[in-house]
Amino acid sequence: MSDLGTSAVTGPEAETGGFETEIGGSAPGPVISERKQARRESWRLIRRRPSFIIGSAIVSIWVVCAILGNRITPHHPLDFRAKDSSGLPALHLSPRAAFPFGTDATGRDVLSRVMAGARDVLKIAPMAAILGVLLGVIVGMIMGYLGGWVDLVLSRIVEAFLALPVVLIALLAITTLGRSDWVVVGVVAVLFTPVVARTVRSAVLAERDLDYVTSARLRGETGRFVMFREILPNVSGPIIVELTVRIGYAVFTVATLSFLGAGPPPPSPDWGAQVSEGFRVLGAGIWWTTLFPALAIASLVIAVNLIADSVQSVLDAS
Fold first, then answer.
1. Distance between CA atoms of 253 and 299, rounded to whole angstroms?
2. Are 269 and 200 within one domain?
3. If both were cysteines, with which of 35, 233, 244, 261 could 308 make a disulfide (CB 3.0 to 4.6 Å apart)?
4. Same domain? 137 vs 218
5. Is the whole model's pTM more than 0.70, yes or no?
6. Do both 299 and 223 map to the same domain?
């Protein structure tokens, strides 16, 4: 009996802290497995929602148009000019079989330009949204976790930014810094950061006093480790929802800036620029050059919002 008892406490397990190793080493495995299983289950539920399917289908169509561009458009969006029976440019043709979306002021096919115009929006808007969410997550994590005067100062800065008119500030910044894709991405991202930071701060405040955070602090983990390795995975739901929502807002913001002349210069088929060009002749009854680019913008924004609503509904229910 004494030999058995001695071997139970003096074997290799005792030298390496076997009891603690067994408990400490076996716990993370099931926890990680449960988290992965929960994520898989949530993703499965999201994919089955009709709103997600419809939104993804619409977004996929525009992504294909953006990637393939001129290779799938009926006509070249810049060089093609429709001709009438006498060989003269056919300007402002109304929608018909040969040109389902009609032609614009120079005889270019509106359908081809709408399809090609997806590239400019989908090249800028997702990058701006992703960058804005990354910055917002960092700022929000710092605000929520550190609290105190850091939270107070950053909260006042965030509130100041939220009080500013987004489009007006973006126009001012683009006019000052120059009109380029990277400038638009940076400006839109900075304007989105305060909104995301406030959302992340609220989520972190609900987590920072829980037992697992206290346990990490007692282990001597650094603040950065606790924020980004312990808390961040548990607030990923609101961040994912915020990202999808911001993409929709970014599409609308980029299109608005193009409409106001801060986007790609003519003859770019950018949707906002097309709406701006067509708006000038709308009073003459030429509605198709404005309607179809505007519907393209609306369809993409609505599709992204459908995806965001599906993600949020599933995450809220889990």
1. 15
2. yes
3. 244
4. yes
5. yes
6. yes
57 and 16, same structural domain?
A: no
Residue 43 covered by a domain: no
Name residues whose C-beta falls within 8 Å of residue 123's C-beta, 6 or more positions apart in sequence: 66, 181
Instruction: Count up the domains in the chain and report the number.
Output: 2
Domain that holds residue 248: 49-317
Above 80 in pLDDT, residue 172?
A: yes
Tokens matching residue 200: 């992340």
Separation of alpha carbons 129 and 146, rounded Å: 25
Rounded to 5 degrees, φ, ψ at 281 are: -110, 10
> Across the chain, what does the average pLDDT equal?
84
